[in-house]
């Protein structure tokens, strides 16, 4: 028993010593990036999939759990692969050119995005739209910081909120098929299901009646 513990401690010391080696830092960062991508993807997707599945999807309890597990695995896997690819390409470019430049980040992310997130499926679509909204905000702020557009005299956010909500509800009412299925489900629940009821049970307690009254 003691011999096994000693071997484990020796192995742990060797691993810790390896992790302190600067010459292996780039490769180890790629591995930890893969780990962090997998963990973060699971943390983000599992609660979202849990809520959306039990709110909007039909099927047995087992089928719902399977759907949650599949969505969580897909998000976790894709994010892990992307971080691994991105950091690996960054390290390779930096090593080849002897230094890191801004274009390296753009190119590595483009390649990773093409390889990992290029498949047009619901999970990837949600991630891309999430990033796109933040990119637009970031580019707008960068344009102001660089002086490409003047600093607004008033906060433009109320106008943005009005245009976003006006546009999305117009699309939902008249061009619904252009919206993502999960957004269609959410808006149907909010704006259409609230138009239908039969008695107090499906007016206050349930969204829809499950019996055949």
Automatic annotation (TrEMBL):
GO terms for cellular component: peroxisomal membrane. It comes from the Eukaryota. InterPro entries: Pmp4. This is PXMP4 protein. It comes from Setophaga kirtlandii.
């Amino acid at each position: 028993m003691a011999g096994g513990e000693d071997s484990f401690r020796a192995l742990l010391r060797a691993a810790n010593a390896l992790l302190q080696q600067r010459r292996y830092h780039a490769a180890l960062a790629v591995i930890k990036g893969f780990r962090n991508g997998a963990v973060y993807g699971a943390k983000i997707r599992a609660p979202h999939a849990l809520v959306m599945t039990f709110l909007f999807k039909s099927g047995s309890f087992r089928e719902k759990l399977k759907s949650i597990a599949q969505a969580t695995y897909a998000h976790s896997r894709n994010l892990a692969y992307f971080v691994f690819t991105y950091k690996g390409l960054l390290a390779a470019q930096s090593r080849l050119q002897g230094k890191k430049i801004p274009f390296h980040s753009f190119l590595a992310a483009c390649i990773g995005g093409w390889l990992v997130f290029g498949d047009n499926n619901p999970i990837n679509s949600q991630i891309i739209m999430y990033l796109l909204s933040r990119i637009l905000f970031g580019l707008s702020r960068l344009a102001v910081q660089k002086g490409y557009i003047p600093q607004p005299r008033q906060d433009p956010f109320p106008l943005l909120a009005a245009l976003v909500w006006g546009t999305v509800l117009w699309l939902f009412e008249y061009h619904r098929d252009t919206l993502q299925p999960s957004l269609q489900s959410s808006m149907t629940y909010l704006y259409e299901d609230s138009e239908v009821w039969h008695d107090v049970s499906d007016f206050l307690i349930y969204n829809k009646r499950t019996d055949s009254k």
